[in-house]
Amino acid sequence: MSEPRCTTDAMALDQDGYAPVDHPGVTVPDDRRSWSVSWPQYTPVDITPPELRPVALARQVPDWAEAAATPTDVNDWDLRRSTALVPFELDAQGWPLHPHGRTGRTGRNLGKWAENAAADPIVVAGRGAWRRVLLITRDDIGVEAIPGGMVDPGETAPAALVRELREETGVDLSDHPPVILGQDLVDDWRNTDRAWVASTSALYLLPATVTAVAADDALDANWYPFGSLDQLDAAVAAAGRTLYAAHRPLLQRALDHLAK
Questions:
Q1: Does the predicted TM-score (pTM) go above 0.85?
Q2: Given CA atoms 113, 87, 178, 144 in this order, what sign does their dihedral have?
Q3: What does the alpha-carbon distance between residue 67 and residue 242 come to, in Å, rounded to a whole number?
Q4: pLDDT, tens digit, for every residue of 12-40?
Q5: What residues does each domain of the chain span?
Q6: 115-258 architecture in CATH?
Q7: Based on C-alpha coordinates, what's the Rg of the chain?
Q8: SS3 call for 221
Q9: Strand partners for 225
Q10: Contact, 169 vs 163, CB < 8 A?
């Protein structure tokens, strides 16, 4: 039996061999997803944006990114692996491997190589038929999502939960202890074989909705009915918007916790 070949969609690579940042990547069959399965013909597409490519980084490093042009330039792999929310391995050349296997994409469209820690505060107000969840409209992809973002260097996840919520919605819950729901990989649109997002998701419960005003990375902030994902989907669709697919598992986990 012949080896499966990588297949790429019609989105063209540029003259330097890079793909658009939203390229879906080469097709990875389920039986080739695991890094333990040999696949010599695997050639993922590189979705590194212009500002993170080696030539650009040599001139100027964005304030949200590390200077390492490749994982070879990273010198703290032991620390990164020991503090990761989700354990990961390095390959034979010392480069990080996505914990869930091949993605069909390589390069970096995130601040760091390997895990990029995020914080996602799920704010729920009211009970029963009056239960609502606070979502923002993301300014990068224009979908309805949980407020949140990346944990800053030296910052704890609990601090990032409060900061991101305040920055994006104006809601300050620094005096409200959250329920930590989990620490998981997120199916973020920027993920690659070498850089990915893992999030601490937390549930905040309020007796009633509070005023939320979009700011920072949010175009809008709204409260939506939250009796089920189907109800949320319908409400988001009625507003002419789409729910961010990567946050569906986190929202379902919040619903499951509320049902206990």
A1: yes
A2: positive
A3: 34
A4: 788 888 999 999 999 999 999 999 999 99
A5: 30-114, 115-258
A6: Alpha-Beta Complex (3.90)
A7: 20
A8: strand
A9: 132
A10: no
